[in-house]
Amino acid sequence: MSGRGKSPSQVHHQPVRERQGVTKAQIILVAGTTVVAAFLLIVLNSTQLRQAGGGAFSYPIGITQSGHPYKGPPEAPLKMELYSDFLCGHCAEFASVLEAISTDYIQKGKLQLIFHNFAFLTPESVQAAQASLCALDQGPAYFWRYHDLLYTSRAGGMAAYSNVRLKAYAQELGMDTEAFNRCLDTHAKAGQVQADLYAGIQAGVEGTPTWFLNGQKHVGFMSEDKLRNLLDSMLSQ
Known about the structure:
The chain has 237 residues and is of the alpha+beta class. The chain has helices at 8-12, 16-52, 89-101, 123-136, 140-152, 163-172, 177-185, 190-202, 224-235; strands at 61-63, 69-71, 78-84, 111-117, 210-213, 216-219. Strands 1-2-4-3-5-6 form a six-stranded mixed sheet.
């Protein structure tokens, strides 16, 4: 710390009045530095908490009554129910398309996206789906950031979805790792993942991505241009 007091040998030969003055100055300096440090710590923690929660979203996010995460206002004229597997390559590509159109459709209140796990490809698919729901327990912002991280981690292969990595992602996003790890280790979301799979099958889902736009079924990836044309045509009706 700058402003440190003189050594005991130096202070010993100075008048008492000067020694007292230096001591008071040190007290004031230390007190002031402590206040500044505390303020900076509060600001830093506040920033970290905002980042940990995934940062601010420019559109509504939440959880439906049936327990599924959504983004976009519930009153939007278009509603997309998306069934996806985190280890599905086309799902990752379609997630990128949906992110690309989010400013023009989700943020502007034209489209609400509701996510459903349809984990059927591999055991890692099931693990990733459970992990995403453990993230959802800590809030929809955590879910959507975790969702994005799961897709961007696909280049790491199956190892990217090991328990160790799934827990590391939660820590990277600033979650309550104790709660997240307990949720994952105890398979607390296994029943919900299985129920979502059965619900998807009953809705007519056979593969991923499958999505229903205002009830109309679509199967597979769609390019950004084609999706924009589809959304615009439905909005003009």
